[in-house]
Write a structure and sequence with these properties.
Strand content of chain B: 15-25%
Order of helices and strands of chain B: HHHEHEHHEHEEEEEHEEEE
Structural class of chain B: alpha/beta
Largest sheet of chain A: 6 strands, parallel
Number of helices of chain B: 8
Number of domains of chain B: 1
Shape of chain B: globular
Radius of gyration of chain A: 26 Å
Oligomer: heterodimer
Shape of chain A: elongated
CATH architecture of chain B: 3-Layer(aba) Sandwich
Strand order of the largest sheet of chain A: 1-10-7-4-2-3
CATH class of chain B: Alpha Beta
CATH architecture of the largest domain in chain A: 3-Layer(aba) Sandwich
Radius of gyration of chain B: 22 Å
Chain lengths: 478, 251
């Protein structure tokens, strides 16, 4: 499993804010995502309202997750009936071992990969390399960050933080290509290198966007064609997926294929969808001779056990909550410190890797609710973030000044009399620091940060309640 | 083929999942989910109405397919008959100066005779099918060197501008993936209205005769594309960058 750096959220955020490339990348490209999604939803599909589709999708996901054991059993039986192998992996190390075993049995030397977030959780590339097997990412964005030895910046645009200049430098360094600022040329350089790997690789590793239980079918959603290539060209295909990605029936797929690309890139549909239920049949012309599906837990049980947080398992990884999050849009993907960034990452990462390290992540939100509004499966992200904050406090991970401050606040708010008493005290004390109704600097620990970039309004000489009591209520205070 | 064995870890794994959900016993009956809990006669009826509606609305569906596919960067061609369709394919080959053309061995090419049309222009297409190009590696090598790939389709879907292709004998998937230019020949009778229509038919095939449903099928809904560098749209990464859809009117 890759290093968990969720405890460094604050310091990494500060670094990201000072990084011009990251700040530039978080600007225009994301406006593109936001506008694309908006126009795809507003102008496109009319047979059923967007909201009604989201309701149905949320219900389908909730239904499946509440009966996950049933559907896991069903998918296992059906994939095997189709001639494929099914593996149940408890954690990242277990899943890595399964992949290694398959690779060793088949004397695999090169593995090509199409995008899989679970494989990022596993850190499979490092494991393969250590065992003398060369892993090659084939999604262009993933390939770029593989060369740069980084983790994905975004769920669906992993290298969005890299400029074309940086990509050109990487290609020059690792592929001996001539420097260029022509994006099309950069794509061709990558394509030609990857094409060689498509012909020589013995094993292809893919993720799964959806897995249909009844037919035992892995559904892949891609734009570049690398997903088709990875699952068609090599002798062995291994699909790795979180155990929660199931849908009951192939007839549920249409709905999700309408929701996912529109939410992710604003497309009506992506260029390629593959539906893979097993290895090639005897009379098929091509395709893998062996098919493996690895269903991974890796901490998902922590989410499943929790009746509130379970909802996060409905996520279809479209990235819309990232694109619309005012926090993600400032700090970017790496600050979150693990595989999943943004609002959904702030819930999933701490639950999969430890709440103690990730205790700051649930606070990486203004609770503005945009994430909930754009979520295609209506995950109530602010509610889950609040619940997780509650858990952080319950676990004793909050700081002493915070507990003290909130304790005082709680006390002051208990009765009107207490509140008014505190207000009078505050008015007295602020005389030392307030000028013309404004406090420029709060001379207290922790809260002083607030006035670094803005003024704090001083308490008014008289509160509304006082004015009302003395002048406006007409003296009729029965 | 023998059914692969069950993972010895499966039962313990499912036990933990069940425990997390607060249950101690497995669910034994099919859960009450609208797309799952339907009887075969009811599903058969659904597919029958779907097909009747598709039939009745064919001109509208074909027009919608054309509009949506064009918006997704397909080059859509309408052919009044098979001969015109074959000529369109030859024309595409000529425009891109194709020297090597590969095609699948589907029935459509008995009707749309692209072989002789292409041969008249000096190009002889290679059929990527067993017995003609022997080993799988041969198929890959030939396909990667080809300038144009031509195939028929199983269905086309108007809602998304997609072509659905089924893997089977005579239908190598590399044909539609490796060459930089792709031409798919679609008969108007293959055009469905929505994604749901497609999946209803697929599920019917699964329920009635699992064996007819291939282990691999796929949609092609436009040219290969990426926006992974600076969110700038670039066409033609791993798959074909130029895609043609030739709609042939019913015979």
């Amino acid at each position: 499993m890759p290093e968990v750096k969720t405890s460094r959220f604050k310091s990494e955020s500060v670094k990201a804010l000072a990084n011009d490339n990251i700040q530039r990348a978080l600007g225009a490209p994301f406006a593109h995502f936001v506008d694309g999604r908006k126009s795809a939803i507003e102008t496109d599909y009319t047979e059923e309202s967007w909201d009604s589709m989201r309701d149905r999708a949320a219900a389908t996901k909730a239904h499946t997750i509440e009966r996950l054991d049933y559907y896991l059993d069903l998918v296992d039986k059906n994939v095997r009936r189709n001639g494929g192998h099914v593996h149940f992996a408890n954690d990242a190390a277990h899943a890595n071992q399964i992949v290694l075993d398959i690779a060793r049995q088949n004397e695999v030397k090169t593995v090509i990969k199409s995008k899989s977030m679970v494989s990022e959780e596993m850190g499979i590339n490092d494991v393969l390399e250590k065992n003398g097997i060369e892993p090659v990412e084939t999604d262009l964005g993933e390939y770029i960050i593989q060369l740069a030895k980084e983790t994905p910046f975004h769920l669906i645009a992993p290298a969005v933080h890299k400029t074309k200049g940086q990509v050109s430098d990487l290609f020059e360094k690792f592929l001996d290509s001539a420097p260029t600022d022509d994006i099309e040329k950069l794509c061709i350089i990558a394509r030609d290198v990857l094409r060689d790997n498509f012909t020589k690789a013995d094993m292809g590793i893919s993720g799964a966007n959806f897995i249909v239980a009844e037919t035992g079918t892995v559904v892949l959603v891609t734009n570049e064609g690398n997903g088709r290539m990875t699952t068609s060209a090599p002798r062995i295909h291994v699909a790795i997926s979180g155990m929660e990605k199931l849908l009951p029936s192939i007839e549920d797929v249409g709905l999700f294929l309408r929701l996912l690309p529109r939410s992710a890139t604003g497309q009506r549909i992506t260029s390629y969808n593959s539906f893979i239920s097993g290895p090639r049949a005897g009379t098929d012309e091509d395709g893998p001779e062996e098919f493996h599906l690895i269903l991974v837990d890796n901490g998902r049980l922590n989410l499943l056990k929790d009746e509130t947080l379970r909802e996060a398992l409905s996520c279809i990884r479209c990235g819309a909550c990232l694109n619309h999050c005012p926090v993600y849009r400032k700090v970017g993907g790496h600050a979150y410190g693990w595989v999943y960034p943004g609002p959904i990452g702030a819930i999933v990462s701490p639950m999969l890797t430890g709440l103690k390290e990730g205790k700051d992540l649930p606070y990486a939100s203004t609770l503005c609710g945009s994430c909930r509004d754009v979520c295609p499966v209506k995950i109530d992200l602010p509610k889950l973030l609040l619940d997780l904050r509650h858990k952080v406090v319950k676990s004793g991970a909050s700081t002493m000044p915070e507990r003290l401050g909130i304790g005082q606040w709680h006390n002051a708010m208990k009765t009107r009399k207490k509140l008014e008493g505190k207000v009078r005290l505050g008015r007295l004390l602020q005389g030392l620091i307030a000028r013309k109704g404004i406090i420029k600097r709060l001379p207290l620990p922790v809260v002083s940060g607030w006035t670094k970039s803005r003024d704090f309004p001083a308490l008014a000489p008289r509160s509304f309640a006082e004015i009302w009591r003395d002048e406006l209520s007409g003296g009729d205070r029965s | 083929m023998a059914v692969p064995v069950e993972d010895p870890n499966k039962e313990a794994f499912l036990e933990r999942v069940r425990g997390a959900l607060g249950r101690s016993t497995p669910i034994m009956v099919t859960p009450d989910h609208p797309t799952l809990k339907t009887t075969l006669p009811r599903h058969e009826e659904k597919v029958r109405t779907t097909k009747a509606r598709t039939e009745a609305r064919r001109p509208q569906n074909v027009a919608r397919l054309e509009t949506i596919a064009t918006a997704a960067a397909w080059h859509v061609h309408r052919a009044a008959d098979a001969e015109v369709a074959a000529n369109i394919v030859a024309e595409i080959a000529a425009t891109i100066h194709a020297k090597a053309v590969v095609r699948t061995a589907e029935d459509i090419f008995k009707r749309v005779d692209i072989d002789s049309t292409l041969r008249k222009r000096g190009v002889s297409p290679t059929v990527l099918a067993s017995g003609r190009a022997r080993r799988k590696t041969d198929l890959k090598d030939i396909a990667f060197k080809a300038d144009l790939g031509v195939s028929g389709v199983e269905y086309a879907i108007a809602e998304t501008g997609s072509c659905a292709l089924f893997q089977r004998k005579g239908n190598a998937r590399i044909t539609t993936l490796a060459p930089p230019v792709l031409a798919l020949v679609v008969e108007e009778s293959q055009v469905l209205e929505t994604l749901d229509d497609f999946f209803a038919i697929v599920r019917f095939q699964f329920l009635t005769n699992r064996g007819r449903l291939p282990n691999y099928y796929n949609f092609i809904s436009g040219p290969s594309r990426t926006a992974d560098i600076e969110q700038t749209l670039t066409i033609g990464v791993h798959g074909p960058g130029e895609v043609h859809m030739i709609l042939v009117a019913d015979a």
